[in-house]
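BACKBONE STRUCTURE TOKENS:
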Amino acid sequence: MKIEKLEENKLKITLSSTELIEMNINTDEFYPESPQLHSFLFRIMHKVREETGFEITEGPLLTKTIPNPQGLTLLVTRLRPDMLRVKPKKTELLKKHPKVLRAKIRKKEVVYIIYRFMQWNDLSFALNACNADISAEFVYEMNGAYYLLCDTDDPHPLLREFAVSATDDPLLLPLLKEHGKIIAQKEQIPILKNL
């Protein structure tokens, strides 16, 4: 592990592929908020603290993980208080600008019930058994599995016969949207039963 001090509050940490293998680190498992990434960063930052005295508890840390063919590079910046943007409280804003009051309209977030089908045939059989009478919005394909996203609290009961509910995984929907391939949208889903 090579540690370079770029600035007072900034470090560059380089790990070789061999070191990652010795530490049993698989960078493919790193995604924001993953336990693997947090554990890895925690271990590395404690080693850095022991070797350099770089204090990791003096404020928030901003880390950037950059995988490369030779291994992994970490850029770590300890944020100073002046780097943090503090939003003024609403009461302070209203005192300064009493005539300006704006309402934010937020889109209602759609909550999907997600069913995972391990094979195309399972999805096709489910659509046939339900006579395509399913209130579904999307069918995604990712890593060889098929995902049916239903926008209702009470989807067709036969779906549970052919699929596994995958709604419990809070990261699945963002992963599907980013890495999955849309096979069909709402009006196309009934056509899938014939394929």
Q: What stands out?
A: The longest helix spans residues 35-52.
